[in-house]
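To illustrate the input format used throughout this study, we show a single complete record. The first block contains the structure-token representation of the backbone; no residue identities are included at this stage. The design step must infer an amino acid for every position from geometry alone.
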């Protein structure tokens, strides 16, 4: 029975395949991270817009303490 070591052709092929799979995994992970960061940024922007809209509604309703005043 032949040992599978890096010195054998099968060992080289196995190592190359493992490196290829790890590279693909890293690329997928980076793409997922970028997508999540983008979605998080979009969600933050939506929350800020919502806060501004609520503040505007409070001012229109005559509520003295707007969100801006409460934050300072």
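Output of the design step:
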């Amino acid at each position: 029975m032949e040992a599978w070591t890096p010195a054998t052709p099968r060992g080289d092929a196995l190592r190359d395949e493992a490196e290829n799979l790890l590279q693909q995994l890293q690329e997928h992970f980076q793409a997922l991270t970028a997508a999540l960061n983008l979605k998080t940024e979009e969600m933050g922007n939506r929350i800020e817009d919502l806060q501004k809209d609520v503040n505007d509604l409070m001012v229109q309703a005559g509520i003295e303490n707007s969100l801006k005043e409460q934050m300072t």
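Structural context for interpreting the output: The chain has a mean pLDDT of 85. The first helix runs from residue 9 to 60.
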